[in-house]
Amino acid sequence: MKKITILLVLFITVGLSAQNMETYIYSIKGQDTLRLDVFTPENIKKSDSLPVLLWMHGGGFSGSHRAYPDDQNLVKYAAKEQNYIGVSISYRLLRKNTATGFGCDCTKDEKMETFKQAAIDYLDAAKFLVDRAKTLQIDPTKIIAGGSSAGAEGILNAVFMKDYFVTDKDAYNNVKFAGLLSCAGAMVDARYITEENAIPAVLYHGTEDQLVPFGSASHHLCDPKRDGYFILDGSGIIAEKLEDFDTSYYFNIVKGGRHEIARIPIEEMDTIFNFFERAVINDEVIQTKIIKTTE
């Protein structure tokens, strides 16, 4: 793997949005040049060290990109409205242009390798930020991991299953997450959530999600006889584990909701960031379940 130091690719002021954006290469892996966009509040002071929202887009590990409007608008919002550093990353789309995609024809081993490499890419992006915390004016103790759909799977595995997926754990000793935001996400095995690694979480999920299970069920609802049969633990199981460890969570349950709940709930961001203010910044213990139904 080719390692590089910080490389400034782009610097612009984003229209009237009251934040600045810089793009960096955080890693080169084979044919993939992985970049991240860093949005900084326009009025940031030289002495500031700000919390971070580190975002991983969805797309089934085969499509979309870090600058997709919904994803970019979220990190821009974090910088403009919440005085965070907002970061959106690219990562290796290992199922792009593959014959089996990421559904029931994709083998369990291929799925596991995809989850592993996505988690490692995410950890590498986080390490890039932490290693440059002073330059980028971030508080490395206040990194919120966030993602939707495939991105939510990536961040959940990175946050809770680092010990399972990563061989060189020492490389990430300084990478720690203070909270997480998952939109329709699941992880390989929720038993890896422990009292030591449990962190405040915002979880959105539909109970009838047909791609990423709400509870403990097969990925893509694959039949046990299919190559892609692979049990994952979704938001319902994750919330139970956090409750067991008296860890804060804000769990938004949509009864009857399907995978459309992976959509970024931009209209509820004030509530979400208020939760992080209380649970992460002020260290309060808050456990909230919001139950909605589809219309």
UniProtKB/TrEMBL annotation:
Keyword Hydrolase: yes
Highest taxon above the source species: Bacteria
Keyword Magnesium: no
InterPro entries named in the record: AB_hydrolase_fold, CarbesteraseB, GDXG_lipolytic_enzyme
Ranges of residues in domain Carboxylesterase type B: 29-153
A Pfam family of this chain: COesterase
Assigned keywords, A-Z: Hydrolase
Protein's recorded name: Carboxylesterase family protein
